[in-house]
Amino acid sequence: MASEQLKNMLNEGIAREIQVSIQYMWQHVRATGIESLSAAGELKKIAITEMKHAEEIAERLDYLGGEPTTQPSPITVGKNLEEMIAVDVKAEEEAIALYKKIIQAARQEGDTTTARLFESILADEEEHHATFLQLQGK
Fold this sequence. Notes:
Layout: H1 4-30, H2 36-63, H3 81-108, H4 112-136
C-alpha cells in the first residue's frame, strides 16, 4: 500500500482542509462592511468545497490503511476582511505546495489514484487562490 510518508502527507492535507473549511466559514459569518458582500458568498462556497476535500482525502487515506485525523491545522480568522483574505491567500499557497508534493510522492509510489485525486483537488485550490487574489484586487 502507501508509505507512511505519503499517509502522513494525506493527514496533513486533511488537517489543512478542516482548518480552512472552518476558517472560511467563520470569515463568511464575521465579514462586515459593504466590501464584504461579494466576499462572504465566496467564502461560504469555498468553505463547503474544502470540507468535501477533507472527506475525499479521508476516504482515500482510510483505503490506504491510514487513520484520518480529526484535528485541524491552526485556524486564523482575521480581524477584518483585508486580513482575512490575506491569510486565505497564504493558506491556499501552502495547500498548493503540499498537494504538488503529494502528487509527486504518489506517482513515485505508483499510486495513480491518489495522484489523480490530488490533481483534481489542486485545480480547485488554484481556483480558490485566484478568487482570493481577485478579492484582494490583484
